């Protein structure tokens, strides 16, 4: 089960990057009509790039990781600052004690579990890599 989960997580990373590339093209080129087969080709292209990097540049990966930690950290800080400044603010009592299910789920517990799927997915992906 662990090996299957690891393989699925690895494949989902390529899928996310490939569909993000396709989504970026859709955003910047309104004449482009995305097709599912094109998305699959983007996923294959991302997997090919990943394979080439892992085969031919394996000795450079530690150096690349050390360099990339800085833009990653700066990007994280930029996102947090923008969200902190532009997000709507509320008082602490409403934020911590006023729990609502606005997603259409009847049960609040089920609504919370559905909402946590995305966060748990990203935590699992980080642990597998």
Structural write-up:
- The structure is a single chain.
- With 129 residues, the protein is mainly alpha-helical.
- It has a domain of 33 residues.
- The protein contains five helices and no strands.
- Helix 1 packs across helix 2.
- The chain is extended and about 55 Å long.
- It starts with a helix and ends with a helix.
- The model has no long low-confidence stretch (mean pLDDT 85).
Count of helices?
5
* Cα end-to-end separation: 16 Å
The helix content is over 70%
Q: Given the C-alpha coordinates, what overall shape results?
A: extended
Question: What's the main sheet like?
Answer: none
Q: Give the tally of β-strands.
A: 0
Strand content: under 5%
Mean pLDDT: 85
Write a compact overview of the structure shown:
This protein is an all-alpha fold and 129 residues long. The two termini are 16 Å apart.
Question: How are the SSEs ordered, and which strands pair?
Answer:
Elements: H1 2-28, H2 36-56, H3 61-86, H4 92-97, H5 108-128
Helix pairs in contact: 1-2
